[in-house]
Amino acid sequence: MSRLKYGYSIKTVIDICVYAVVTGVIALVVFAVSSGFNLQFNFKTVIYAIFYSLVVIASYSCSLIIFKFISVSESGFYSTGLTLVITAICGYLLFSEPFTLISVIRVVLMLISLLLIYLTERKTNKNDNGDNNALKPKVNKNKIIGILLCVAAGFVGVGELIISKLFAIDSEVTSSNSLF
User: Fold this and answer.
1) Per-residue pLDDT at 109 exceeds 90
2) 149 CB-near residues (< 8 Å, 6+ apart)
3) pTM here?
4) What does the alpha-carbon distance between residue 51 and residue 159 come to, in Å, rounded to a whole number?
5) How many other C-beta atoms are found inside a 10 Å radius of the C-beta of residue 66?
6) CA dist list (Å): 34 to 39, 126, 146, 170
7) How far apart are CA 27 and CA 164, in angstroms?
8) How far is 148 from 69, CA to CA, in rounded Å?
């Protein structure tokens, strides 16, 4: 039951909004530094900031909901692994980044490792006859919901990376002094 306490640590919408504002300010600092302190404030910059803030709020909200269903360590494995896989695929599809045989092997190995983590965590119980030799897997609905939420969090995490990449390559908001 102690692992569920993380899901209840934020009690009001105001706390989430304060978190979002602080995160937005941090994002602004990151954008300013990454643009070589030559950030061009225009309509596109505001759009990037709004979408980035919305994605951060969605990411944080997903995390709070995930912790109601699975532990922090489990969510870390699933969310991080899925984010890596989705990022590699989106980089190839959206930004024409190289997707070599090594990239395919990495994605496949990550998916296999996530599957193995899931399979090794499944609990077993006695079958209906009480026979200890015939164990059947017990389906844990909370774990399934938590993993599905991790998939959603993986897509949200990739959203942050996509917005950052689009920002970095957009000449209307970054200059030639940009760190990218």
Assistant:
1) yes
2) 62, 65, 66, 69
3) 0.64
4) 9
5) 26
6) 9, 57, 34, 12
7) 10
8) 10
